[in-house]
Write a structure and sequence with these properties.
By secondary structure, the protein is mostly helical. It has helices spanning 2-25, 48-55, 59-62, 79-119, 124-158, and strands spanning 39-41, 70-72.
Length: 160
Protein backbone atom coordinates (compact mmCIF):
# COMPACT_ATOMS: atom_id res chain seq x y z
CA UNK A 1 0.00 0.00 0.00
CA UNK A 2 2.76 2.44 0.93
CA UNK A 3 4.64 1.53 -2.22
CA UNK A 4 1.58 2.38 -4.34
CA UNK A 5 1.25 5.71 -2.53
CA UNK A 6 4.91 6.49 -3.19
CA UNK A 7 4.53 5.61 -6.87
CA UNK A 8 1.37 7.74 -7.10
CA UNK A 9 3.12 10.67 -5.44
CA UNK A 10 6.10 10.30 -7.79
CA UNK A 11 3.82 10.24 -10.85
CA UNK A 12 1.94 13.32 -9.65
CA UNK A 13 5.18 15.25 -9.01
CA UNK A 14 6.62 14.12 -12.35
CA UNK A 15 3.47 15.19 -14.20
CA UNK A 16 3.43 18.57 -12.46
CA UNK A 17 7.10 19.13 -13.25
CA UNK A 18 6.51 18.11 -16.87
CA UNK A 19 3.58 20.51 -17.23
CA UNK A 20 5.43 23.38 -15.57
CA UNK A 21 8.63 22.63 -17.44
CA UNK A 22 6.91 22.18 -20.79
CA UNK A 23 7.42 25.81 -21.66
CA UNK A 24 11.14 25.65 -21.07
CA UNK A 25 11.64 22.52 -23.15
CA UNK A 26 9.38 23.43 -26.02
CA UNK A 27 10.07 26.16 -28.49
CA UNK A 28 8.85 29.49 -27.19
CA UNK A 29 10.43 32.55 -25.77
CA UNK A 30 8.21 35.53 -26.40
CA UNK A 31 8.98 36.73 -22.87
CA UNK A 32 12.40 35.16 -22.54
CA UNK A 33 15.81 36.75 -22.72
CA UNK A 34 17.08 33.66 -24.55
CA UNK A 35 16.84 33.60 -28.34
CA UNK A 36 13.94 31.75 -29.90
CA UNK A 37 14.40 28.19 -31.00
CA UNK A 38 14.30 27.51 -34.71
CA UNK A 39 11.13 25.46 -34.45
CA UNK A 40 9.18 22.86 -32.59
CA UNK A 41 7.61 19.48 -33.19
CA UNK A 42 3.99 19.44 -32.07
CA UNK A 43 3.14 16.31 -30.14
CA UNK A 44 -0.61 16.97 -29.85
CA UNK A 45 -3.19 18.47 -32.18
CA UNK A 46 -3.90 22.15 -31.62
CA UNK A 47 -7.20 22.99 -33.28
CA UNK A 48 -7.83 26.28 -35.06
CA UNK A 49 -10.15 27.60 -32.35
CA UNK A 50 -7.54 26.82 -29.66
CA UNK A 51 -4.77 28.47 -31.67
CA UNK A 52 -7.07 31.42 -32.33
CA UNK A 53 -7.66 31.92 -28.60
CA UNK A 54 -3.91 31.73 -27.94
CA UNK A 55 -2.82 34.09 -30.70
CA UNK A 56 -5.78 36.47 -30.85
CA UNK A 57 -6.06 35.94 -34.59
CA UNK A 58 -9.01 34.66 -36.63
CA UNK A 59 -9.33 30.86 -36.64
CA UNK A 60 -9.40 30.85 -40.44
CA UNK A 61 -6.05 32.63 -40.57
CA UNK A 62 -4.35 30.55 -37.88
CA UNK A 63 -5.65 27.12 -38.98
CA UNK A 64 -5.23 23.72 -37.38
CA UNK A 65 -1.82 22.58 -36.17
CA UNK A 66 -1.73 18.81 -36.27
CA UNK A 67 0.43 16.73 -33.96
CA UNK A 68 3.58 15.38 -35.57
CA UNK A 69 4.09 18.51 -37.67
CA UNK A 70 7.14 20.72 -37.36
CA UNK A 71 6.52 24.44 -36.94
CA UNK A 72 9.29 26.67 -38.23
CA UNK A 73 9.50 29.62 -35.84
CA UNK A 74 11.95 31.57 -38.01
CA UNK A 75 9.64 31.56 -41.03
CA UNK A 76 7.21 34.30 -40.04
CA UNK A 77 7.02 37.55 -38.12
CA UNK A 78 4.46 36.00 -35.76
CA UNK A 79 6.95 33.47 -34.39
CA UNK A 80 5.92 34.34 -30.83
CA UNK A 81 2.35 33.34 -31.62
CA UNK A 82 3.56 30.02 -32.94
CA UNK A 83 5.68 29.66 -29.81
CA UNK A 84 2.51 29.82 -27.75
CA UNK A 85 0.99 27.15 -29.95
CA UNK A 86 4.09 24.97 -29.42
CA UNK A 87 3.97 25.42 -25.66
CA UNK A 88 0.25 24.72 -25.53
CA UNK A 89 0.75 21.61 -27.69
CA UNK A 90 3.34 20.34 -25.21
CA UNK A 91 1.04 20.97 -22.23
CA UNK A 92 -1.77 19.19 -24.05
CA UNK A 93 0.46 16.21 -24.87
CA UNK A 94 1.72 15.86 -21.28
CA UNK A 95 -1.78 16.06 -19.80
CA UNK A 96 -3.10 13.53 -22.33
CA UNK A 97 -0.26 11.18 -21.42
CA UNK A 98 -0.98 11.67 -17.73
CA UNK A 99 -4.68 11.01 -18.35
CA UNK A 100 -4.12 7.70 -20.11
CA UNK A 101 -1.44 6.48 -17.67
CA UNK A 102 -3.66 7.26 -14.68
CA UNK A 103 -6.62 5.63 -16.40
CA UNK A 104 -4.62 2.44 -16.95
CA UNK A 105 -3.26 2.43 -13.39
CA UNK A 106 -6.73 3.06 -11.93
CA UNK A 107 -8.15 0.18 -13.96
CA UNK A 108 -5.49 -2.19 -12.65
CA UNK A 109 -5.99 -0.99 -9.07
CA UNK A 110 -9.77 -1.46 -9.36
CA UNK A 111 -9.22 -4.99 -10.67
CA UNK A 112 -6.89 -5.74 -7.75
CA UNK A 113 -9.37 -4.27 -5.25
CA UNK A 114 -12.11 -6.42 -6.76
CA UNK A 115 -9.88 -9.47 -6.38
CA UNK A 116 -9.27 -8.57 -2.73
CA UNK A 117 -13.01 -8.14 -2.12
CA UNK A 118 -13.79 -11.51 -3.70
CA UNK A 119 -10.97 -13.34 -1.94
CA UNK A 120 -11.54 -11.68 1.46
CA UNK A 121 -13.95 -14.37 2.62
CA UNK A 122 -15.25 -12.13 5.42
CA UNK A 123 -11.78 -11.12 6.60
CA UNK A 124 -12.21 -7.49 7.69
CA UNK A 125 -8.52 -6.73 7.21
CA UNK A 126 -8.63 -7.73 3.52
CA UNK A 127 -11.92 -5.88 3.01
CA UNK A 128 -10.38 -2.74 4.54
CA UNK A 129 -7.33 -3.11 2.33
CA UNK A 130 -9.55 -3.52 -0.74
CA UNK A 131 -11.50 -0.37 0.20
CA UNK A 132 -8.25 1.60 0.52
CA UNK A 133 -7.19 0.50 -2.96
CA UNK A 134 -10.60 1.40 -4.30
CA UNK A 135 -10.31 4.90 -2.80
CA UNK A 136 -6.85 5.29 -4.36
CA UNK A 137 -8.27 4.27 -7.73
CA UNK A 138 -11.06 6.84 -7.41
CA UNK A 139 -8.49 9.52 -6.54
CA UNK A 140 -6.46 8.50 -9.61
CA UNK A 141 -9.60 8.82 -11.77
CA UNK A 142 -10.28 12.28 -10.34
CA UNK A 143 -6.71 13.39 -11.02
CA UNK A 144 -7.02 12.00 -14.55
CA UNK A 145 -10.21 14.02 -15.05
CA UNK A 146 -8.45 17.17 -13.82
CA UNK A 147 -5.58 16.45 -16.24
CA UNK A 148 -8.05 16.68 -19.12
CA UNK A 149 -9.11 20.16 -17.95
CA UNK A 150 -5.58 21.60 -17.56
CA UNK A 151 -5.15 22.54 -21.26
CA UNK A 152 -8.39 24.54 -21.19
CA UNK A 153 -7.20 26.34 -18.06
CA UNK A 154 -3.84 27.10 -19.67
CA UNK A 155 -5.58 28.33 -22.83
CA UNK A 156 -7.79 30.56 -20.70
CA UNK A 157 -4.83 32.02 -18.81
CA UNK A 158 -2.53 32.50 -21.80
CA UNK A 159 -5.22 33.53 -24.24
CA UNK A 160 -6.32 36.57 -22.22
Amino acid sequence: MKKLQKVSAFLAIFALAAVLGAGSVSAHGTHSAAPLANGCLLRADVLANEASELTGKDAGVVGDHLGGNYIDLQETEVAGDHGLVCTYGMVKWVTNLLFFVLLAVATLVIAYAAFLFVSAGGNEEKVGKARKYLVLAIVALLVAAVARVIPAIVRGIVGL
